[in-house]
Fold Glycopeptide antibiotics resistance protein.
Amino acid sequence: MNSMIWPGAVAILGSLLFMGVAGIFLLALQYRRHGRLSWRRTITTAAAALYGFGLFSYTMLPLPATRDAFCRPGVAVAQLEPAHFLADFANVYAQLGLRGLATSFTLWQVLFNIILFMPLGILAVRWLRGNVFTAMVLGLAASLAIELTQYTGIWGLYTCAYRVADVDDLIVNTFGALLGAVIAYLPIFSFLSAPREPRAEQAPPRPVTLARRALADVFDSSFTGAAVFVIAAAVNLAEQLGGPVVDPGLVSIWVPAIVVFFVFLLPSLAPGRATLGQRCAWIRVTGARGRRAAAAWRAGLRTILGFGGITFLFQLTTGLNEIPDAPWLGTAAMLYAVASALCFVLIPGARALAGVLTGTGFADRRA
């Protein structure tokens, strides 16, 4: 039983970690594509992530301790005879009878493969809006990829195959996806289908609310944090591999500056007058009392005085390295952030302090 439970636990943990790291980016992509967030899209995406990790853990784990651990005669030999499982059923039935067959590992291994691929068929119909044929093709493709990965020892990562590549798995897995596609049409699975909506660019403009502005800031903050982390990790890895040692002080200043420039400032100066997060939320910077895009210098100045500048100071003081020469910098950034947040909440139009100082506002990009 433990061999059935622990891969599921690995799948749950892996999907939770994945959604914790990538969830906000998936939400940004969803908003950019559809112009709003949907709880059904979000739940189905989380379910797809859980299923993907489950498929991996049940078909690939546990991994061998060494590259040559399974390089022995008669171990993990490929089964290339189609429908061989029917002969196995007949042998078990002849030896143990119907009751023995019903409780045998031979039968339940096939049933488990079918059950394992049924969610793929359900997701193909409900999430991808495909049909039975789409589900069969996806089931066959996914099963073929798994069997080839097992047969090649994860494409040469291990010297020998450590799991049995079985042509019967292609048959039963594809049948499982087919069965899942058929039952996906039952009303019980309707919640997995996101609402049918036009693409975001075809939808009518909507008011720019405080919640929408805050969501755009969350997107920008996530993009910045992820980019700073990736660059810092790359710099550290290059040093570990014998590359040039970079002055930590320069890293502390230039990495946040470069990231904020590409996430906030450059997109604000470009046509559209919006940061990357604001573009995902279909917002643009305008003049204080109009829907026309603001001048480039106004949009850029607003970014510097607004959340872009606050994010830069935050990354500078708490990101890669502390700056002992300017202990007041963090306090100043915090005070300015609080003042900006108060203006954001109290001033109509979600203009914030930077909007007041630069005479700018926000409007839907489709207006």
